[in-house]
Amino acid sequence: MKILDDLSLESLTEQLSRASRRYVLDVKLENYSCKMVSEEKRQYKDLVSRLEIEGEQSSCLRLSSSRTIRGLRELTGLPISRSSYQMSSSQAEADDNVSSRNRSRTSSSCSEEGSLNSPTKASQLSITAKEFFCLMSTLNLSFNSAYDFLTAESDEFCLEPELRIVKHYISRLCSIYVDKYELLAPKLWLAINEAIVPHKCVIYSYRPNHASDPYSSGCLASFNYFFCNRDLKRILFFSLRVLNESPAEEQFEDEMQDIF
């Protein structure tokens, strides 16, 4: 896997990172190719072997429930009816049906260099070993191997709902911590749409373990999303961490003039 050059995403990462008077923001907006290099192929084989020893089915690994739905409930104080949204896996499958493209749903979908196919229908909250490995590798690459995510369990990741719900949650959280987010949002989602076509993606998130990951110690708030486009064989990683630090006031004022 490798990060893909994208000047629009790089520019927006910089703008978002500087767009708060009160908080220090760590933002990642990165697009990755899911094509494995030799070392990653070896690591993937090791993962499949570990799963076999543990008695796990590599075509249908367990995921946790949505952090987005729980986060919206905490922000708004209102329950969200399950009938009012669909999961992003259904969103991606619906798009495939419109385009008349059929995906294999057998356990063989997780071949060494196979496509990022969907898991079997045994459970909506499931993921293939191939896609699971790509999520872990994305985190390792994004955080420069400062943390070892290759030892994670599949239920440390969550399946998230359709794009409109995820965008709504990001907007609600950013409106708290990012100054004038509403001015940046149109450019942000235009760039994301051009990079990954998010309405065709399955959307995942990583669930912090509150012990040894970058989303636990020193974070006031955070979100992270993996927009996985199986047709493009790419993952766009969008992460925001609100750090428990104070920004430099004079630097903020100069930079905000450049942004807005």
Automatic annotation (TrEMBL):
InterPro entries: Maf1, Maf1_sf. GO terms for molecular function: RNA polymerase III core binding. Coiled coil: none annotated. Residues 97-118 have a biased composition (Low complexity). It comes from the Eukaryota. GO terms for cellular component: nucleus. One of its GO terms (biological process) is negative regulation of transcription by RNA polymerase III. Residues 84-119 are annotated as: Disordered. PANTHER family: REPRESSOR OF RNA POLYMERASE III TRANSCRIPTION MAF1, REPRESSOR OF RNA POLYMERASE III TRANSCRIPTION MAF1 HOMOLOG. Belongs to the MAF1 family. This is Repressor of RNA polymerase III transcription MAF1 homolog.
